[in-house]
Amino acid sequence: MRSDILVLIIGGGAAYATNTPTARAERQLNLGNKYLQEGKYQEAILAFEKVIAIESKNIPARLGLGNAYIATKELTKAEVVLKEVIEIDQNNIPAREALFNVYIKEGNLDNATTILKGISEIDPNKDVKQFNADLESAKAISASKASYDQGIKQMGDKQYLDAVDSFQKVVKEDTERYTDAQTKTNDCKKSFVDATLQKAKDAASNKDYATALNLLELVLKVDPNNQDALKLKSEYTNTLEQIRQEQEKKSAMSKLKDFKVELVNRHKIWIEYTDGKRELLLDGTDRDLWIDNAQASIDGTGVYYTTDAGVISSCSVHFINIKTKEIKDLGGGYLKSVISDGEYAGKLIVSEHFYYGPPNYGSYDEVYIVDNNTGRNIKKY
């Protein structure tokens, strides 16, 4: 009988011992850690919360709860719990390490730096190389995210090249944004090319070929093998060259008005500039030089003139340079006239060829061109 009572007393005492608050807290703590390792985070959270309800300052339970919140990406809750651990134990390094990771994930790099500094102060011998590496990586990803966000805005504002520059700053370590940044880089380049090609076409339609060519160069910097841009560049370059040549011809013709040629007494050629200044260009008095006609060259550099050479119907053609006074003989046997007005005068704009006519004994309805260098006829009108 007494032995039975003793067994009951001992048995009852064992049951009571396993049901104390400390025992219940330990069981829930072990259960929470088990769930945490198995990835059953919600079950782990419930278990750790039960521990804290029993023992509010249970640091292992709070650390487990903080890690469970980190796993479920409930970073704000994790931050609160881990800060409470540090309030309980200022020197708790595991809590600081976990809080460091929270700040890294949140992108709160200033706080992460402060926490890391605190860890080194608590334990100067603590190896923090990996933490420093994580911090630098987080800084790079933070800058990468900022570049990505800026690129998105620039893309929306149609600042395509600026957006390309921004997207190209997104680093491979930024796995959340890197692939999309590469795609958007190509999209921006295409949009820029399409828009700039259209601007070039619009400029060309307004005959602003210089601007059009500048725009095409921008396209080719982005897409060097763009066939549309290459074709338009060739077309606009040729058109611009034709315009340049026409302008040069007009400029050359206008130079004829820069000075007037006056033949005096068939011996002297005077030129009078637009400012009223007069200059004796050629005096053939001493040489008994008889001059029939004189006319300014199309480039305004000199004067063509014909001389009698003692023959009534034919003459020789010469050119005198205004600056050097050098005389070039262009040949003889031509009728004594130089085309200076009328139907054929406008043809002076065509090239650096001297127009004369008609040739000796030829029809008065004919006009010939003589090459300045050879003196030979090269075309007949």
Question: How would you explain this protein's 3D organization?
Answer:
- The protein is rod-shaped, with a radius of gyration of 49 Å.
- The chain is an alpha+beta fold.
- Helices cover 55% and strands 15% of the residues.
- The model is unreliable at 5-12, 335-368 and 370-381 (pLDDT under 50).
- The chain has three domains: 2-126, Alpha Horseshoe (Serine Threonine Protein Phosphatase 5, Tetratricopeptide repeat), CATH 1.25.40.10; 160-250, Serine Threonine Protein Phosphatase 5, Tetratricopeptide repeat, CATH 1.25.40; 257-380, TolB, C-terminal domain (Neuraminidase), CATH 2.120.10.30.
- A four-stranded antiparallel sheet has the order 4-5-6-7, with no helix packed on it. A three-stranded antiparallel sheet has the order 1-2-3, with no helix packed on it. Strands 8-9-10 form a three-stranded antiparallel sheet, with no helix packed on it.
Low-pLDDT residue intervals, each spanning 5 or more residues: 5-12, 335-368, 370-381
**Beta-strand proportion:** 5-15%
Walk across the major sheet and give the strand order: 4-5-6-7
**How many separate helices?**
12
Count of beta strands: 10
- Please trace the helix and strand order, writing H or E for each element: HHHHHHHHHHHHEEEEEEEEEE
Q: Please give the alpha-carbon distance between the first and last residues.
A: 152 Å
Mean pLDDT: 82
Q: Tell me the overall shape.
A: rod-shaped
- CATH fold-level name of the largest domain: Serine Threonine Protein Phosphatase 5, Tetratricopeptide repeat
